[in-house]
Fold this sequence. Notes:
The structure holds two protein chains of two kinds.
Chain A: H1 2-12, E1 21-24, E2 31-34, E3 40-44, E4 49-54, E5 59-64, E6 77-82, E7 89-94, E8 99-103, E9 112-116, E10 123-128, E11 135-140, E12 144-149, E13 155-160, E14 166-171, E15 178-183, E16 187-192, E17 201-204, E18 210-215, E19 222-227, E20 231-236, E21 243-249, E22 254-259, E23 266-271, E24 278-282, E25 291-293, E26 300-307, E27 310-318, E28 322-327, H2 334-337, E29 342-345, E30 351-356, H3 357-363, E31 377-379, H4 390-393, E32 395-400, H5 410-418, H6 426-439, H7 443-456, H8 468-471, H9 475-495, H10 502-514, H11 517-528, H12 535-553, H13 562-571, H14 585-590, H15 595-624, H16 634-647, H17 650-660, H18 662-665, H19 670-686, H20 690-699, H21 703-706, E33 754-756, E34 763-765, H22 766-775
Antiparallel strand pairs in A: 1-28, 2-3, 3-4, 4-5, 6-7, 7-8, 8-9, 10-11, 11-12, 12-13, 14-15, 15-16, 16-17, 18-19, 19-20, 20-21, 22-23, 23-24, 24-25, 26-27, 27-28, 29-30, 30-32, 31-32, 33-34
Helix pairs in contact in A: 5-10, 6-7, 7-9, 12-13, 13-15, 16-17, 17-19, 19-20
Chain B: E1 2-3, E2 15-16, H1 18-26, H2 46-49, H3 53-66, H4 74-79, H5 83-98, H6 105-118, H7 122-134, H8 150-153, H9 156-164, H10 171-178, H11 187-209, H12 234-237, H13 246-249, H14 258-278, H15 283-299, H16 311-317, H17 322-325, E3 349-350, H18 356-367, H19 371-384, E4 389-390, E5 393-394, H20 399-412, E6 415-416, H21 423-428, H22 431-442, H23 449-454, H24 461-491
Parallel strand pairs in B: 3-6
Antiparallel strand pairs in B: 1-2, 4-5
Amino acid sequence: MEKMSRVTTALGGGVLTGRTMHCHLDAPANAISVCRDAAQVVVAGRSIFKIYAIEEEQFVEKLNLRVGRKPSLNLSCADVVWHQMDENLLATAATNGVVVTWNLGRPSRNKQDQLFTEHKRTVNKVCFHPTEAHVLLSGSQDGFMKCFDLRRKDSVSTFSGQSESVRDVQFSIRDYFTFASTFENGNVQLWDIRRPDRCERMFTAHNGPVFCCDWHPEDRGWLATGGRDKMVKVWDMTTHRAKEMHCVQTIASVARVKWRPECRHHLATCSMMVDHNIYVWDVRRPFVPAAMFEEHRDVTTGIAWRHPHDPSFLLSGSKDSSLCQHLFRDASQPVERANPEGLCYGLFGDLAFAAKESLVAAESGRKPYTGDRRHPIFFKRKLDPAEPFAGLASSALSVFETEPGGGAMRWFVDTAERYALAGRPLAELCDHNAKVARELGRDQVAQTWTMLRTIYCSPGLLPTANLSHSMGKGGSCGLQLMNSFNLKDMAPGLGSETRLDRSKGDARSDTVLLDSSATLITNEDNEETEGSDVPADYLLGDVEGEDDELYLLDPEHTHPEEPECVLPQEAFPLRHEIVDTPPGPEHLQDKADSPHVSGSEADVASLAPVDSSFSLLSVSHALYDSRLPPDFFSMLVRDMLHFYAEQGDVQMAVSVLIVLGERVRKDIDEQTQEHWYTSYIDLLQRFRLWNVSNEVVKLSTSRAVSCLNQASTTLHVNCSHCKRPMSSRGWVCDRCHRCASMCAVCHHVVKGLFVWCQGCSHGGHLQHIMKWLEGSSHCPAGCGHLCEYS
Amino acid sequence: MNRGGSSPSAAANYLLCTNCRKVLRKDKRIRVSQPLTRGPSAFIPEKEVVQANTVVERTNFLVEEYSTSGRLDNITQVMSLHTQYLESFLRSQFYMLRMDGPLPLPYRHYIAIMAAARHQCSYLINMHVDEFLKTGGIAEWLNGLEYVPQRLKNLNEINKLLAHRPWLITKEHIQKLVKTGENNWSLPELVHAVVLLAHYHALASFVFGSGINPERDPEISNGFRLISVNNFCVCDLANDNNIENASLSGSNFGIVDSLSELEALMERMKRLKEEREDEEASQEEMSTRFEKEKKESLFVVSGDTFHSFPHSEFEDDMIITSDVSRYIEDPGFGYEDFARRGEEHLPTFRAQDYTWENHGFSLVNRLYSDIGHLLDEKFRMVYNLTYNTMATHEDVDTTMLRRALFNYVHCMFGIRYDDYDYGEVNQLLERSLKVYIKTVTCYPERTTKRMYDSYWRQFKHSEKVHVNLLLMEARMQAELLYALRAITRHLT
């Protein structure tokens, strides 16, 4: 009581004054602690142990406690604490396991009072009882906590954590008998000081060591813990089970945590490694720190609020050998620099916009959005007087909708689903796609496909009449024609389409794709060579088909494109290695200097001479044919693709790119291709056309794109015996040490595709089951069930 | 220890320890027999390694999952004496070789080759040459360091220091590597490389320390493999029976009753435990003890006490055959006693100022995600592994012994624990064990079966393997701590 009144007078009289300042120490600090009068601070480290007076303008060294000619290891402090009841009493924890108490009241130069050498390993933390004058608690690396009565020579009681090293011990401020301890293995224990035999409560708080904890000064039962897993968690200990109330994710492992006085939800943290700043967090806003102190040049090792009832002064010691006083008002506030506005485009052209209320209000006068379907919605949070950033918490959300029909994307979905991109001869693909486009009323696109067919497939092959008009004309004519179409046809094409029915679209994406022959083929391939790249498959299929045709047409004539198509085919045997190469994202990094890449390049290079002679031969043939070589058009085609992409129809650009493959790819630079691919894939995924998007990914030749579906390919499964998730791999259970999925036919572990009967739940390797069921209709496991495979 | 590559005699294929060379020089007619031991290790009789069925099953599971080569190699077989540990070992090794990481796969294997080459460990080199080619490495690189990209070559300096004198690594070395330029390393790449280097240096210690035999698969021959040669001198392999030499008789072991040796050790452990409370050495005393231990490790003669030749003679013998040296530069650079380099006077590394748990882990995990957890688990596992047995005795608390081994290794790398009384090392580790430890951690290539046999003669082989695991992990941690500390300093 007496203490309380003193504090208020001290504060009322404005005794606590000061500014942001720092002073240089001789050595790195490990910990700091403040005297209860808030006018002195003690700094301790491996080779420093000093008391500084905090004056208005500077720190003044008052006392050096490190005396004696030969400094002993007892003075190498890991932690220091100043008694909050007795101004003369300090305790330190030494790295060699000794707990030392110091009495500043001693007349001699050496203030060392008592020495407790009971711990076998480094003592990580010491803590005085908040109200009891003689009770000291220590926690050590050896896994024990000891409670000392300073009137006696040795410990009163020993608490064994039964787990690993103790990292922190803290007396509860409210409960007289309770203290919390944190451990290297992630546990937090709650003890009653009277019961050393076992802890009252234990729970796992963090993954990895819990470096620190702090009881809330006012809220009984709130405990903040910080761990190596970079998190600060606030626990409510009053309930039966410790409940996690808040969790703040920091950017580095948390070394210290201290509640801010008089601010119920604020706490200060500093980190163990890498990050040198001190952050003050509002635990309710766990993403952006409320304040940040950036003075230190090396990791901060100790923080302390100067006065238990004053929230504005923070002291800190650091490995950079400096001691700092931070003023809260001088702190940088990341919130101010943050951008509290959000903007998001909806799939159907809707636009949502959220911003600080004040901002919206200021501009509402000239709000031009007349097409609003809904009025802006305002969210406002109740103002909290203790909350200094209340202003930021209120924001406005507006949703704007585009005019009906304008953004409808039905054509996009239909086109994506129905286009054929691979697996058939080029001519057929073009015809098919042209037909699709025409049915959807996109005549210009249809015309483009038809022209592509004309350009790239030899004329004799054209069976239908619909191309005849462009057949006789030269290539340049065709282009002019196309350009004129472009301008006219675009607008009606868009206008006539209607808004997409969402549910229908979803249903379709499943059914339509199943009957597309292309996907079926690639799927089958994929079942065997799991993880292999499919562009190779595509190239094979494509080239084969085309070759057949060409030979039918003119057996002696070699198409000039052929050598280029053959190259990837030659490289195909290398493909099986891809099973061994790392998963997707790595490719990106490898690209520059991966020996694997250059290895295959070398192979290709060695093949080159053979091919080039081949192509020389064929070029002369082509000229002899009096027909313009497709190369002649490649510029035009390139311009056409760019034009479509610019128009916003990236779908067309990508589809043509895939269908034409090698023929145009070389004319368009890699980055542009990649850009088109990624935007198209993004669009497809937004429309939930997963199958189409995957097909596009597979067919793409761009390395960066084709590795997209190699990333995060993990599917988590549970063990069939113990029903627990199998964390590290899919076929062996960590807990019951059994193989989860055995093939009923060959009795081996199934590591790849596992197919099972939904009736009797037996199954195995896909091939084995298929083969088995060809010969027998009973379950291979012998359970008598009549399994079906369809 | 030289592989007599040029000599056509039968002995040419075996490494000869200095002593045997001397003998051979005297008597050219001596016939060298084939190694007597079969199985995974030259030191451990094959039947010792054979395991109960459940263990074999478990091991096979692990191999199937984590082995990069897909077969049960000799290292794994020997380690399978400690299945618990084996799992974390394989898991972390698999992670650094095969899982997500900043370095391309062939790089990883090449770095492993470079690391193993520092200790002339042809076993590991062969293994990774195969893997290197399998993952698509360029065969040309295997011709030697001149053929690899400058970027990999730049790693040489740090490989050398890390292997032999990690305390010399400074932030300048790190800066040089990460400095922007054509061949620079990004920090995550560097950390990955450092982890690999430390892992393979330490693994080389294990290979030599446990006398791992070369793999028996002559069919793989790609020209880049070194001829599989047993690295151990024939006199060791022949169980000391073949070579009768007068010059040795003086240094033969005194016939100590090894049983009483064990009893004595247990007695000392017990006494130490009890004394702990009574006698407290002063701080000055403690630090003197560390210095003493450090100094004493000096006199634990490098190499082999039984073949006590002057140091220079060793140097002569250290001419390495060209096939190994093509992966390294400056082959003469070796371990130098931490205590000896007085003139440079580097400060002792205080373990409490940069611990693995607090600092090392955070940094590693930040730059090369998840490896921290795996290494952490591995270190923890090896440190806490115990069966509470000592030779024939059961229910013994071996914590003290394990800690002594771990800290002694760190002591030789100049890492000091404030809370450890180095007097314990003296009490618990007998001289022949110290010789063994020093050889295995500092010059693993000089380990002989004689050294392996001469300490703790009552102990089981599995316990000796346990010792080797401890030494390996302690060494790896020491190397990592120095390297990571340098990286931290570079960052701040």
